[in-house]
Specification:
CATH architecture of the largest domain: 2-Layer Sandwich
GO molecular function: ligase activity, forming carbon-nitrogen bonds
Number of strands: 22
CATH topology of the largest domain: Creatine Kinase, Chain A, domain 2
Protein name: CBS domain-containing protein
Distance between the termini: 50 Å
Strand content: 15-25%
Keywords: CBS domain
Organism: Candidatus Sulfomarinibacter kjeldsenii
Pfam families: CBS, GCS2
Structural class: alpha+beta
Shape: globular
Number of domains: 3
């Protein structure tokens, strides 16, 4: 859950003091390894479930505080955004019926979350990225009022020195900037933990890195953001960019992002990771630290290593090492952050079983996988799986690249089965959960594929907002039924919230494919653009995409008979005929308010701006098209 007791803003002296504590914690951790202070001889598993809170229209609902009060359970805690929630499962000894027991608790806690959300007028959805999420949902007003989150946002903004830039390309393209870390809240995951002994950590951690590709290929569930079709698991690229504090430099310089897959295999212990991360990443937060880890060790107690844990919580490896204490005994865990939330709790537990089995199987069959494949192959597999999901081409132990589905069925499922059997898990549970993975891969119906296929089947129905509402509602409905995603029928438009929510604000109705000119360009260009694109208005913006004016077809027609290009030494610039400082609306403006403005003033066009930047346009023709669709629907009814 992360260290919550942090200073909202740390000065240089406080950070130096914190770094001294951090270095002391590292030395204490090293001593604990040398003196074999960690719990051994047992493996435990656990998980953290993140989820979205939605309203009755399947839009993000900022009700986390109210839901937490209603649920009243210590397993639950806040997340970065007020429309996210997290709950933590109890640890289970790895063996016997642990998978079935974990799924039972997962379902019980999810049921509590759903019941509490419904009391607050909402619901819950398990999905990597909520399809109905809008960029306007990611304003700071929706950040959870927790000192840690504000402090983290401020620290990263200072380190970044400007807006965060995002660029992702799949079938569609996303390019935007954002002024806070809140875009991270677009992602939710199902994070699983695996407790290991120090002497086996390096080999098991390397195994976790090696199987990241096939695991992600079979579990992808986040193919869209803001209605754009991007990566099969868009979370991977989005999360890295959402808290990327690196700045560009005047010359080539290698810089590691705070979210990373890693740079190399681990050679001996978890200490290598802590040392690497402290070396490469500045401390963002500080906290009050009173206890001395060496004094605690002398007394035979496990030190909290508070500084080390806080710094580690601000470095986001996809496979992260965690230090913890249970019943007074310190332990080391590998935290898997790759897996998306959803599509169902059964799918999630199958994903967890696949991962537990894979890393155990790799250890049994290969020992240290670092001796059998280059690290670059593991990283390449991971990136290919994030981009292409089940369609990825993967490499394994020196073999030629092969389709992910074939490798999973032929190589990785048997390997996972071997690992779970060696660990002593119930045979019936093994076959049940790995059977979910096998059916999903054989049918090529991952959560990502289901969502894309559903959107494709709805392509000629309703608006984009209606389609996104429909797939979100369908996801929630099928989750309640509990059957794995491989058995889901595609979403239907009538499952969504209907047309009302689809046109509630200007953001839902505006056109973002805008034709613009610069005020210094010739009027002749505007005239040609109107003919070529069959439009009646052209927006005028400066080099920074700030709206400075508007040219209408009526204005051009008024020039006929008075404008003689041959009489001028240079063409007439747009600035001479444009309407300067036109009235604008924002994406959040209610559509009815915008319509009233246009009707009252006789306007056929309204530019849409955000922080002075042109982001869209609302036109009379668009509103007529929407009205026609709604009239047709009503007449059919």
């Amino acid at each position: 859950m992360g260290e919550q007791d942090v200073r909202e803003q740390s000065n240089a002296e406080e950070l130096r003091v914190f770094l001294r504590h951090l270095l002391k914690d590292v030395r204490a951790f090293e001593q604990m390894l040398e003196e074999e202070r960690f719990e051994t001889g047992v493996r435990r598993i656990g998980a953290e479930q993140e989820l979205f809170l939605v309203d009755q229209l399947w839009r993000p609902a900022p009700i986390a505080t109210e839901v937490l009060e209603a649920v009243d359970d210590p397993h639950f805690t806040t997340e970065l955004a007020r429309f996210n929630l997290e709950f933590n499962l109890d640890p289970h000894v790895f063996g016997g019926s642990c998978l079935r027991d974990m799924e039972w608790q997962l379902g019980e806690l999810l049921g509590k979350a759903r019941e509490a959300a419904q009391k607050c007028g909402g619901d819950v959805v398990l999905t990597g990225i909520l399809p109905t999420l809008k960029k306007t949902d990611l304003e700071l007003i929706n950040m959870t009022p927790n000192p840690r989150y504000y402090a983290l946002n401020d620290a990263m903004n200072r380190l970044r020195g400007g807006a965060y830039e995002f660029y992702l390309q799949g079938l569609d393209e996303l390019q935007l900037h954002h002024d806070s870390i809140l875009l991270e809240a677009a992602n939710t995951s199902f994070q699983v933990h695996f407790q290991v002994s120090p002497d086996e950590f390096a080999r098991l951690y390397n195994a976790a890195q090696a199987v990241a590709g096939p695991l992600l290929s079979s579990t992808a569930n986040s193919p869209m953001l803001f209605g754009k079709r991007l990566w099969a698991e868009t979370r991977i690229g989005l999360f890295q960019q959402s808290i990327d504090t690196r700045r560009s430099t005047p010359h080539l310089r290698e810089q590691t992002p705070r979210v990373s897959f890693g740079r190399q295999w681990i050679k001996s212990s978890a200490l290598e990771i802590f040392q690497e991360d402290i070396t490469r990443f500045r401390a963002l937060l500080s906290t009050e630290i009173e206890d001395d880890p060496f004094e605690e060790l002398q007394k035979g107690r496990a030190p909290s290593l508070k500084a080390l844990r806080l710094h580690n919580s601000t470095v986001y490896r996809w496979n992260r090492v965690c230090y913890g204490i249970s019943d007074g005994l310190p332990h080391i865990r590998i935290e898997n952050r790759l897996l998306p939330s959803g599509p169902t709790t059964r799918d999630e537990m199958a994903n967890a079983a696949f991962w537990f089995g894979l890393i155990s199987g790799v250890l049994e069959r290969y020992g240290d996988i670092a001796e059998h494949m280059p690290f670059d192959d593991a990283r390449s597999n991971f990136l290919a799986a994030a981009r292409h999901g089940i369609d990825a081409q993967l490499t394994w132990c020196g073999r030629d690249p092969a389709p992910a589905d074939r490798l999973i069925l032929d190589e990785f499922l048997p390997l996972a089965r071997e690992g779970l059997e060696t660990a002593g898990l119930d045979a019936e549970n093994i076959e049940f959960y790995l059977g979910v993975i096998e059916e999903r891969v054989s049918s090529r119906r991952t959560g990502a594929q289901w969502l894309l296929q559903s959107m494709a089947s709805l392509a000629n129905q309703g608006s984009l907002a209606e389609r996104l509402s429909a797939v979100t509602a369908a996801t929630a409905a099928r989750q309640r039924e509990g059957n794995p995603v491989s058995t889901w029928e595609l979403a239907r438009l009538e499952e969504g919230a209907g047309w009302k929510q689809s046109y509630a604000t200007v953001e839902h109705c505006m056109d973002t494919d805008i034709v613009t000119v610069n005020e210094y360009e010739p009027v002749d260009l505007v005239a040609k653009m109107m003919v070529w694109k069959n439009i009646r208005h052209v927006m005028v913006e400066d080099a920074e995409n700030r709206l400075v004016g508007l040219v209408s077809q009526r204005k051009l027609l008024n020039l006929v008979g008075t404008y003689h290009p041959e009489e001028r030494d240079d063409p007439m610039p747009v600035s001479e005929i444009m309407q300067s400082d036109p009235v604008t609306v924002t994406p959040e403006t209610p559509t009815v308010d915008a319509i009233e403005l246009m009707r009252t003033n006789g306007w056929a066009c309204m530019p849409v701006v955000k922080e002075d930047h042109l982001v869209g346009v609302l036109t009379e023709s668009q509103l007529m098209f929407i009205a026609g669709e709604l009239l047709e629907q009503k007449l059919r009814e």
